[in-house]
Write a structure and sequence with these properties.
This protein is mainly beta. The protein has two helices and 20 strands.
Length: 310
């Protein structure tokens, strides 16, 4: 009888213990786990710099407002296309320098068509100048001007911005005409900065992501300008983060490397120059060395399309 009672007590104790284990679980499971989100805790931490990955494409979410942090510099990645979301207001942080990436299809910046206002055409056709080894042919008759798309919010950052040059006293016109918004090919609407190796430089006034540059040298006559080089840099002396975005110097006369781009015939459409992805800076410098009609260097207008870095 006594043995039966002891066995009953032992059985009851064992059952109660199992119920406590099953019902309670770990403390984190009840209060909002680090890999779940309803409780609002920080979703993932990798202080040693590891990556947070969901290769299968799942989302990394903290609806309760927690942070996604990799203090050691690891990346937060969802290669399969998932998003990194903190609907409750949490931050996605990688203080050590890691990236937040969704290569498989995360949200991308919206692209819009860039609207460029063109001046009146001053001549017909785009004949290729004779005896020039590096001039591209113009578009074929009836060929439509290509559509240019840029991130939503892109504007002409160069409009009315200050212009300097290695020719402080232009032969004709003023340097401010380079960014005054007037693209007319009529006489009196351009600045002539003399012959030889000349440049003009625009101070955007702030750091910006730059997507493209449009240039109108002189479109009152079919001509091409030689050794056109466009550079972007962080400082006015072009010693920091210098990036060449266009180079038609086919014989390396400037010593900046042999250019991969062709020269082109000027028209009222100007020339849109695509900037490589990641181009960023404050100053834009444009070089040239005469043209196929004479040795002078001219500018009617320059537009720089980008978005200020916040």
């Amino acid at each position: 009888m006594r043995s039966t009672k002891l066995l009953s007590i032992f059985t009851v104790t064992l059952l109660v213990g199992m119920m406590i284990v099953v019902g309670c679980g770990k403390k984190d499971d009840q209060a909002g786990t680090d890999d779940g989100t309803p409780g609002g805790g920080e979703i993932v931490k990798a202080p040693g710099g590891g990556d947070v990955k969901t290769p299968g494409g799942g989302d990394v979410k903290t609806p309760g407002g927690g942070d996604v942090k990799t203090p050691g510099g690891g990346d937060v990645k969802t290669p399969g296309g998932g998003d990194v979301k903190t609907p409750g207001g949490g931050d996605v942080k990688t203080p050590g320098g890691g990236d937040v990436k969704t290569p498989g299809g995360g949200a991308k910046a919206k692209k819009v068509v860039l609207s460029i206002e063109l001046p009146k055409a001053m001549f017909k056709g785009t004949p290729v100048p004779m005896n020039e080894p590096n001039i591209a042919k113009g578009r074929a008759k009836g060929e439509v001007r290509p559509t240019i798309k840029v991130p939503d919010g892109t504007t002409n950052l160069a409009l009315k911005k200050p212009v300097t040059s290695n020719e402080s006293l232009p032969v004709v016109g003023d340097l401010e005409m380079v960014t005054d918004g007037d693209k007319s090919g009529e006489d009196g609407h351009n600045v002539d900065i003399g012959f030889g190796k000349k440049w003009v430089q625009i101070d955007l006034g702030l750091q910006a992501n730059i997507y493209g540059v449009s240039v109108w040298h002189y479109h009152g006559q079919a001509r091409a300008y030689r050794d056109v080089i466009v550079e972007v840099a962080d400082d006015e002396d072009f010693t920091q983060n210098v990036q060449i975005v266009f180079n038609s110097d086919h014989d390396n006369s400037y010593g900046k490397g042999i250019g991969e781009e062709m020269g082109y015939v000027e028209t009222n459409e100007g020339r849109y120059l695509y900037c490589p992805k990641g181009t960023k800076g404050r100053f834009v410098r444009l070089h040239s060395q005469g043209n196929t009609s004479n040795d002078q260097n001219h500018y009617i207008e320059v537009e720089v399309y980008g978005i200020a870095v916040k």
